[in-house]
Every structure is written in C-alpha cells, then in structure tokens.
Amino acid sequence: MAGRGSRPSGKIVRKAPVRSAIRPNRQAKFKSGRATKAGRATKAGRATKAGQAAQASTGNIRRPRRTAPGKKALREICYFQRTTNLLILKTPFARVVREILLECGMDYRIQQSALGALQEAAEAAVIAELESKSDMIISWTTLI
C-alpha cells in the first residue's frame, strides 16, 4: 500500500515534455530516441581517402572572392565622400564638449545649434588634416 510520500510501486514511467505555451511550434525535447544523420558522414566517406576526395569534389562550397589590397579602403573613402552626413556621432561629441566645458569652470549650457556648428567645424578640421597627410604620403612614396 503506497503512502502519501512514498514512491509508486512498479516500473518508472518517463513523462513526456510539456509543450510550451509561448512557443507552440517548438519541437519536444524527447520526441524520439534516435538522432538524425544530418551532421554525420557516410561510412564510405569516413573509411577511405578516395571517399573523402569524392565528397570534396561533389560539394558546391565556393570560397568568397578576395578583394585586392586597399580596395575596400578606397570603396569606403568614395562612400564617405558621396555622403553629406556627419562622420562623428552626435552624442559622444556632445559628451566630450560638455566635459571640456566642465573643466573650464562653471556649469555652462550649450544649444543644439551651437553643438552642430562645433561638430561641423571639428570634422572640417580633421578632414583637412587627413587630406594634407595623404598628400604628404603620396609625395613621399613617389620620392622613394
């Protein structure tokens, strides 16, 4: 006679998993006892090198084409020259400006239009500096 907290007599029954109400289309964890053969190699392919060569030749795996060195950089330069949006993100730039203003003294307030003008001027200065450096590099490579 089984008591209230005792174990049931007989064989142990494994309960089927309950399907989730959140994701009803999800497969049950213990649906079947067998594993699928999707990730396994065949016996012929596993046994010999000839089988491996046959498997490699029949596959349609193509490596991606390699781009020439510097081609991606040139593509990015052309993209950024075409676009008119700002290169520096607005919130980090505003954070740096406010940090500099705090170092100067009192707690200053700054308008959004003033931040935009500062950012435009800063980007123009950075771009001018980088252009002069690239011209210098080009002239040095022709001399060497």
Automatic annotation (TrEMBL):
Pfam families: Histone (PF00125). One of its GO terms (cellular component) is nucleosome. InterPro entries: H2A/H2B/H3, Histone-fold, Histone_H3/CENP-A. Residues 69-125 form the Core Histone H2A/H2B/H3 domain. One of its GO terms (molecular function) is structural constituent of chromatin. The keyword DNA-binding applies. Keywords: Chromosome, DNA-binding, Nucleosome core. Residues 1-69 are annotated as: Disordered. Its main location: nucleus. The keyword Transmembrane does not apply. It is found in: Chromosome. Transmembrane segments: none annotated. Belongs to the histone H3 family. This is Core Histone H2A/H2B/H3 domain-containing protein. It comes from Trichoglossum hirsutum. The lineage of its organism: Eukaryota, Fungi, Dikarya, Ascomycota, Pezizomycotina.
